[in-house]
Amino acid sequence: MPWAMAGRASGRRSAVVSRGDSTLRGHYPDETDALAAGLGMPVDATLLIPAFISGGRYTIGNIHYVLEGTGLVPAARTPFARDPAFAYRYSDLTAWVEEKSEGRIPAARVRTISIETIRGGGPDRVAAALVGLERGGVCVVNAASERDQAVAALGALRAESQGKRFLYRTAASFVRARAGLEARPLLTAAELAMPHSGAGLSVVGSYVPSTSSQVAALRKSGRVTAIEVAVERLLSPGTRDNEIGRVARLADAAMRRCGAVMIRR
Questions:
Q1: DSSP string, 86-132
Q2: Nearest Cα to 113, choosing from 155, 75, 145?
Q3: Which CATH superfamily is domain 4-179 in?
Q4: 8 vs 101: which has the higher pLDDT
Q5: How sure is the predictor about 2, in pLDDT bands with cuts at 50, 70 and 90?
Q6: Residue 11: how many CB atoms within 10 A of its CB?
Q7: With contact defined as beta carbons under 8 Å apart, do 150 and 122 qualify?
């Protein structure tokens, strides 16, 4: 999983955000543990904030929901929870933390900040709750709107101004709120300033129907050369190098024709 990080350059205080998937897929808590250890960073608590408002992901009453059509579905009942690599059984994030940590962090020890606290108490109540967290604990922050996340971000900033250090595990919405960035439309083709010639290479892996349908539509468009990797050959020491070589040669030939290439499993 990618992460966004503001470093301690020039002696300035930093905030570290592990940018995980909003539907709870990822190597949690291994990624946040590795970040804290690698940075040598003392952490008062890890804040778990997976709500991704523009993507239709909300956390209400500690339950993480996915918007499907006009209704909210608990995340554990969606295809995302059946991802072979990152499957999970619980939509309740306190139970999800216990599940993903294999019991090292019991659900009963996971603290939460409710939407009622955020909307009724504002940043000061959020800050007070964060300041009072157990050292090394995990706190779930609920959110069902961009404003909820803005209030939570301000509360976290106020807690940090009192000397608290947090490691964040979040989706995209909170990153923007924490950085104080205004919402804006998607970039246009002109703003991307893409070159008029050349080739492009994408490596795609999909385990969920929504992404698989996007890949299928791209292949059907005829605007990309799709190269499928034989996973079983990659897994065998006797055929791995030959398979890598085969895919590399095909991709190189297609890119020399100035085309778009998609390598997929």
A1: T----SBHHHHHHHHTTTSS-GGG-EEE-HHHHHHHHHHHHHHHHHT
A2: 155
A3: Putative sugar-binding, N-terminal domain (3.40.50.10840)
A4: 101
A5: very low
A6: 5
A7: no
pTM: 0.80
| Structure tokens given for 8 | 């301690």
DSSP at 82: G
Q: Write down the domain spans for the chain.
A: 4-179, 197-264
How many C-alpha atoms does 198 have within 13 Å on its Cβ side?
5
* Tokens 């619980």 belong to residue: 90
How many Å separate Cα 238 from the centre of its chain?
35
Instruction: Record the tokens describing residue 130, joined without a space.
Output: 């964060």
pLDDT digit string, tens, across residues 190-202? 888 777 777 888 8
- Per cent of the chain over pLDDT 70 is 94
Burial status of residue 212 (CB atoms within 10 A of its CB: 0-12, 13-18, 19 or more): middle
For residue 24, pLDDT beyond 80 = yes
Measure the CA–CA gap between 95 and 108, rounded to whole angstroms: 8
Residue 11 pLDDT class (50, 70, 90 cuts)? low
Most distant CA pair in the chain, distance: 62
Q: Write out the two tokens for 91.
A: 């939509």
Q: Which of 142, 90, 94, 92 is nearest to 121 (CA)?
A: 142
Question: For residues 128-140, b (16+ Cβ closer than 10 Å) or e, as one string?
Answer: ebbbebeeeebbb
Pick from 141, 218, 132, 138: which is nearest to 174 by CA? 141
